[in-house]
Specification:
The chain has one domain. It is about 60% helix and about 0% strand. The protein is built from six helices and no strands. The protein is globular and about 30 Å long.
Length: about 80
């Protein structure tokens, strides 16, 4: 299962609009450490669409709830790479 998620996230990393693309270059272990979650959760999160600029805060709330991660930690992580254009 983890291999499938990893491969899917690798494919999504070349597609703008996915968190895998926005966070490309970040180590999965580092993302997991920053969000206090396991590797599978990181990959599931990477397969999500990026927050929309006009609904950033609400989208982050939904992403955090979906992944079961801290909303503030996710906001900090995404702020570190900039919001999608």
């Amino acid at each position: 299962m983890i291999d499938r998620l990893r491969r899917a996230a690798e494919r999504a990393s070349i597609r703008p609009g996915f968190l895998a693309h926005q966070l490309d270059g970040f180590d999965v272990v580092e993302i997991g450490r920053r969000l206090a979650c396991d590797e599978a959760t990181v990959y599931r999160l990477l397969l999500c669409r990026t927050p929309r600029p006009d609904r950033f805060a609400g989208d982050v709330v939904e992403l955090a709830a979906y992944a079961g991660v801290d909303q503030d930690a996710l906001t900090d992580l995404l702020a570190g790479v900039g919001r999608p254009v």
